[in-house]
Amino acid sequence: MSSDLEWLLLRANNSFLVKRVSEGPIFSKEPGNLVNVHSQKFSGLANAKIIDVRPSPNGIAITHRKKSASTHSVRTAYASTIIGSRTGPRRALGIAAQSAKRGYRPDLRAATLARVSALIAAQKEPKAAPPKKVRGKKAKLIA
Predict the structure, then answer these.
(1) CB burial readout 80-101, b (16+ within 10 A) else e
(2) Which residue(s) pair with 82 in the sheet?
(3) pTM
């Protein structure tokens, strides 16, 4: 089945749609949708080539569908790359951009890099807050 036909069947209703405001944008929670916007370009269900970026226990997992995979294979049709939690941000963004450099969905390069950098920032441990400085009358009493 062509991806255009799949999109025509899925765009009106599927279980991943999120319609919060009646006049507002329509979002989607489907796997493989990098920006969570309900559109054919970013759809993980209607496209044959998808890139999925998810947090994993080891770091960040980037999964894409193999070019030579048959339509019947499920598990073996996907290749996954893990970006370790101790990998630096520049190296992680280089790993995320590899699929676009090879010509696999180059239109999703910016969305992939944005998702990876957001996950890196979310997984980073926050810095400890500096101690509050005593000001005013209390500072004069201590000094």
Answers:
(1) eeebeeebeeeebbebbbebbe
(2) 61
(3) 0.78
